[in-house]
Structure formats: C-alpha cells, structure tokens
Write a structure and sequence with these properties.
This protein is mostly helical. The protein has a domain of 82 residues. The chain has 14 helices and twelve strands. The strands form five sheets. It has a three-stranded antiparallel β-sheet. Helix 7 packs parallel to helix 9, helix 9 crosses helix 13 and helix 10 crosses helix 13.
Length: 392
Amino acid sequence: MKQVPVLALLLWVCGATAAATDVQTPAAIYGELFERVQLERVYPDSKSFVDALPVSAPEQVLAEFRQARGRPDFDLRKFVAAHFAPPPSAGAEYHTVPGQDVREHIDALWKVLERKPEDQRPYSSRLALPHRYVVPGGRFNEIYYWDSYFTMLGLEESGRHDLTTSMLDNFAWLIDQFGHVPNGNRSYYLSRSQPPFFAAMVVLAAQRDGDAAYRKYLPQLRREYEFWMEGERSLAPGAAHRRLVRLRDGTLLNRYWDDRDTAREEAYREDVATARDSGRPAAEVYRNLRAAAESGWDFGSRWLADGKTLASIHTTDFLPPDLNSLLYQLELTIAKGCEVTSDAACAKDMRTRAATRKAAVQKILWSSALGAYTDYDWRAQKSSERVSAATL
C-alpha cells in the first residue's frame, strides 16, 4: 500500500499489528526519483524531501517523473517544486513576547507544538497517532522517543498531565503496533528505537495516577523488554544478535542497533558520502551510523574509532552504560507492575534480572582508572578511554 498514513490509520481503527517492514518508506515509494533528489541536493538537507508532501498520489508523481525525465528540457528542481510541498516548519509562526516570564513562555509553547490526530496529512511519511503529542519544533515536526520524556517533565511542571498521558498512550500504541517505540513517528524511523525511556514515563505518570499506571502499561513494558532482549535464549558466548550481546563469560548486556544497513533516508546524501570516504563496506558504515541514531548521540566522538572521523564509526561494537541503565530501570518497573498485578513469579524474575544487570554494569562498564562508567568494546574486549555524559 502506497499511502503510509492510511496504513497507520487502518492499524489504529482495526487494532491490527504490523511489522516495521510492512510500512513503505519514501525510498521505496519514490525509487529512482528519491535517489536523484537526494544525491543532486534538490533540498538543502536530506530530511526535507522525506518530510515533503506530494500534491497528488505518490504513484502518479512517480509515473509523471518517469515520463518526463528523458526530455531534453527536464529540470529536476522544477519538477520537485511542482509536485511537492516543502515540509512546514513547526512553530515558525510563533514569536516570543518581549519581557515574558520564562514559565509563561514555555506554557504558551505547548499549544504551538501540540499535534492532534486530525492534523495528519495525506501521503505523509509521518505516522498517524491516535492521541495528541508535542513535537520539538523547527524542522522536527514529529515526536522523538527519548526527547519526549524530557518534554513530559516540562508538561508536568506546567500542570499538563493530560498531555503527558496522551503522549504515553501514543508510545504504548506504537509498541502494540510495531513491537517497539520507533526513533520517531516517521516511516523511515521504524527500523530502530531510541534510548528506552518508556519505563521512566510510566514512573512519571504513576506519581499522579498511582499503581494504576503500572497496571495499565505492564503489557507494553513487557513487550518492549522482549524487543531489546530478542535472542537471549539461543545466543552463544562471544556472539551478538540485534541489540543483545553475550560476552565470552556468559554476561548479557545490550547495545544500540538498527535493523537496516542502508543509508538513512533522512541523511541519505550525507551517509553515502561518509561510506564512500571510509574505505569500508558501505553496509557496515550505514549500520553503525543508524545505530548511533538509535542511541540519540548522533554524533559524538564516543562512537568513533579515531575519536574524530565519522567514517571510523563503530557504534555496534560498544556496550553503553546509558542504555543498560535504562534497561535496568525497565526491569525494575516491570517487577513493580508484576507486584501490582499479584504476579509474584514475574516480580521475582525481573528483580533477579535487574540485579544481574546491575552487577554486570559494575563489573564491565565501570573504569576504576577513569573513575567513570564507559562504553565497553565487546569485540576488542576493552573499555573505551572516552568519558562522556553517558556516565551520569
């Protein structure tokens, strides 16, 4: 089905579940048109085209492109300008009131950055969500997973618990539909997640809603955990599967990953150039660039072999303290939910898992020489020498 938003809306209405691969991304929809637009820099950056809105059905646009491209007078820029509306800039119409108190300024911004289900546009790469949410603003006109936790902290300070709950319900819906919370609600983000703050969101909601929050979101907490722990039962020592690594001594810890090994659609031209300059297999570079995007630290020197050059990126070789700390919280939050629902066996199992992970983090990720938690290169079997804010 070409119309990504229509698929998302059908999933919402019918309660069906889809794999991320069932949703077509702009690269799949527009094929050779996508590649030319991105590589010939029709827009200033690659994200602009994947967020642009076609003025007619994508299959019609592609058919017209294939008809027109062979003509001597064909102009790609003019064709794109005639067939696509550039993505709107979120909050562009808003102007700060001079002298306004900072709290009043923030409170006023929520309405500017709030999006509703009815705001969804036809043929958009943005995935329709069933509840209201807040976007970052500017060219980022979609939600981002870990950013949203900090947005929700602000909403709580503003007394907007209603919006906090709506956003949490959207993340639960995404887990129900796709098995994980994607990087953001765009079709091209579905192959990866971001730092798993869903448990922290549930804990935040529970400060107002009590144990009912743990009970309500326990199914999604458990399913997100399954996503991060896939392969646990069959993984051999010294091997990795997607986001999970089993060290040679049997220790289990997690890493960042992406299920695709192609150039990111929202950074296509840039990724192609990075891979070309790297001297490495392109798929290897793309996977590591994507994994860094899942980490939310795109891009920091912590992922770079030489500490300087993006082409040396090897994110998937690292076991990060930030990710494993968040999964520790997820395990404890599931245990709390199991206690609330009187599932003693589950609660005991999850607390044991949390204790085991805590011991592993202390053993593997703590550097006594640096006095900090650092990333551990599981392939090289050594700690990174770079201290980042992730140690916090």
